[in-house]
Amino acid sequence: MKKTHVILTLLSALTFLTSCEKSLEVAGAAEGNSLLTIYTRSDDAASEVSYPVMVYAMNADGQCVRRQQLVSADDRLALQLEAMTYQIYAIGGATDGDYAMPGVAEATATSVVALNADANHGDLMAGKNTVTLEDNESTTLALSLSRKVMHIERLVIKNVPATVDLVTVSFEPLYQSLLLNGEYSTATTQQRVSLTEQSDGTTWQTVADDIYMLPAADVATITVHFHTGDIVTSFAYTCPQPLQANKHIRISGTFTGDNELTLTGTISGDRWNGTTTINFTFNSDGSQTVDSSDEPAAGSDDEPSNPTGGQTEEGVEEGSAPEENTIYKECFVMSVGDDETGEYVIVTLLHKTEEAITGEGKTQEEVLEEISDALPSFDINGITGWKLPTYEEAKAFKANVANYVFKEELGQKGFTQISSDFYFYIHGTALKAFSGTATSISEITDYTYGQALRPVTTVKFKK
Questions:
Q1: What is the C-alpha separation between 350 and 64, in angstroms, rounded?
Q2: Are residues 299 and 345 in the same domain?
Q3: Which residue of 25, 182, 240, 454 shows the fewest CB atoms closer than 10 Å?
């Protein structure tokens, strides 16, 4: 009797896919009597998958036996294979002209998705799954993909001196390559973005909306370069927060003269992750004037120290982690726990103040933009990275405890009391609201009820 088996995997809420019988390559594998069908699906109509999607099937010995390219969500992939266990790998967004994809004969799980010379990264995605085929079995696999790049959504520098011929911004150390298995190669690189002078003569900004980069392999250095003839003046900054895949990055800055440059930036994740804000400060301690053929490398002795006050070891707070339900730098400690490595303690903080923002009569995108613009103003005592609470963080608000601790430690006028008004939070892909003093928030699903922004952030301590 022929069996039919369906496998469904959700590796990411953001991306997914595969399908079609185009560009099929076969290497050293008998056709077999088991059928594997891979198809495209999306649970979120607002999400899009990057095409083309290249699918690789590896047998139990790690040998690639099939390679097939899918060009749209309407494609369907059908593979006739021998009965055994296979690893299925998929790479989305690696267009033929920009990437050199490994062929079926040489492909392995750790093969490099190589960017061609003079090409730029696209919206790369990756997915994988294991599937076991039995003899005379028909199996259907819905394969999910996750985004592997970050997106430079907006980058602008204002008040640039008229003597400057070109403004560029570099990011390093970034991963150099993506592998077929969705991991990154150990090699790192620098990526530089050139800005375009605007009509006012003092503003330089990106004009393309499709600037993608692989994420940072370590603590990132962001450097602004002013080019004047053969001379380059550079302002370097060590970013206290990770530059991760699946994030939109918006940075705007104003040059203040006398070798000082102040930048403020927003890293906004997918809507269910809320918005994280980071502030950059460039000053004369971090600038260098060098010949254009010998620009400074990240990590040199001339790089500025971290300007955030309490964060000295690559974004790590000084001293010991505070206890839960106490005050740290005028913020309420909502929770304390170890990170994944066990080397650091992660502390979630609730801000002492809030800002009135109403969603009534506005689209979700308009409210999110207003919230994003407001978040940098919450930076306090060197604590940055303020964002909307997630659903879990909203449930942990502890209004009565927080109000009591704030009053005891800061005094009646030192904070804004959490009230029964509605506060914004992010749940899944939706902007929603909850009552600050309610014991349950599950029934308040309309973001237009939101009246206030009360952000949270996390800081880490060495154990």
A1: 50
A2: no
A3: 25
Final residue before a domain boundary, out of 251, 273, 307:
307
Closest to 157 in 3D by CA, of 149, 165, 168: 168
Beta strands in 176-259 (DSSP E): 178-179, 188-194, 196-197, 204-205, 211-213, 216-228, 231-238, 247-257
HSE-up (13 A, CA, CB side) for residue 439: 0
Q: Do both 214 and 124 map to the same domain?
A: no
Alpha-helical (H) ranges within 61-118 are: none
pLDDT at 244 > cutoff 80: yes
Residue 14 lies in a domain: yes
Q: What is the pLDDT of residues 114-162, one digit of tens each?
A: 899 889 999 999 988 888 888 888 888 777 788 899 888 888 888 888 8
Alpha carbon 9 to chain centroid, angstroms: 22
**Domain match, 126 and 236 both:** no
- 32-36, 295-299, 315-319: the lowest-pLDDT one: 295-299
Classify strands 125-132 and 85-92 as parallel, antiparallel or unpaired: antiparallel
Residues spanned by the domain of 358: 327-462
Is residue 312 domain-resident? no
Residue 265's nearest CA partner among 363, 386, 182, 166 is: 386
Determine the residue type at 91: I
303 and 155 both lie in a single domain: yes
Each residue of 164-210: pLDDT tens digit? 999 999 999 999 999 999 999 989 999 999 999 988 888 899 887 78
